[in-house]
Sequence to fold (463 residues):
Amino acid sequence: MSFNSLEFLVFIAVFAAIWPWVRRHDRIRTVAIVAGSFVFYAWWDPRFLPLLVFSGLIDYGAALAIERWTAWRRTWLWVSIGANLATLFFFKYAAWLSGQLTGILGLEAPVGWLADVILPLGISFYTFQSMSYTIDVYRRDIRAERDVLLFFAFLTMFPQLVAGPIVRARDLIDQLRTPGAFTPENRWYGLQRIAEGFFLKCVIADNLAPSVDRMFASAPDDWSGASWWLGALLFSLQIFGDFVGYSSIAIGLAAWMGYHFHENFLNPFRATSPRDYTRRWHVSLGTWLRDYVYRPLIKGPMKAIGPTVAICATMLLSGLWHGANWTFVVWGGLYAVGMVVQRAIAATAIPRLLPSMVAIALAWSATLALTLVARMVFRSSDIGFASQVFRRMATLAEGAWYRLEAPGIVGVAAFMLIAFAPLPRSAGAVPRILSPSVAATFAMLLSALLLRGPANGFIYFQF
Fold:
């Protein structure tokens, strides 16, 4: 079930009607969250609901075993991690790796039936969320949850189930034990965030989608180098509106129910370094990789080597998390190279030789250029296509100039607003110049109905 579908509007209307009553009764509240989340997830394809339940039960049981049988703590941790990664590998990467072996080694790999395997919706999100729970129990950061229904309420809570934010157990389970702050202020804030999310998705992202799709469906030589830079910018705005829109709706739904999710985006277009960008874009994934991949590597097997290899391993994993395609691996690799170069430059006297404003402007421009190149690779169908586009971008080759129509103009204007409107670093993904007023909130909702682009699924559903 997608947020921008009629089915979801009916679902949330029913859920909102019963929530003021069910929230007052502890057991009924937990059952309502789990049941509603199961319906929400199964609406897409009920065949994959048992997989979600099975994955959750393994981690629920492993966490209890970690606490009870301390001599086997590490074994139970690896049972959890192994089961999650094996499931993720089979559904997401088996067919791709099988095809790679066929092409590289000339082997007869069984890609036929593997190619028919359907990727379960949201598997990358709920797998990482569930793994973080058992790892935190193993580290003794949290206690294992005894109430299986409360655990599943944490794991499957529908606002963030299929596309994040990736919520940690230590941030949500204790909230779920209480009715939540169901106040007029929270409900109004939730509605504001929901309106903001639908505006970003339906008005910005969905109107940009046809232009972006047309460019990336054509031959690289059809467009000039400058047009491809513009196309990369428009796709960056499209995926920004699409993913930030989803996260904002999820945060708003949770706030309306009385619960708090952390921000998933922190002004990513204002980043002044590759590392800064990864701290601002998809924050929940970035902090997950930092806490469960980078820091263990830098303190463990790669301590003697230094941070460079750990950075590269973490960013390559970040790319691979997005999907089974070399384009995602290269996307992660570009940011890894950018971070290594950033560290090297920071260790020299160059930043101190330049006036601060000049240094910031150069750093922001270089980060934006890297982001656009990386996004172009991210959106490309394969490495061959991406390399041809990159050659045109690098030389500003001649070709047809892309005609910037109304959606593109709106997209560029949105980029200018997001990147340059004055607001503190700690603010969310977009300037809150519209949200505070009743008129502006309902104007965004009305715009999402009347000015929406062609219906599109959320981009991150494929991950």
About this structure: Residues 6-179 form one domain.
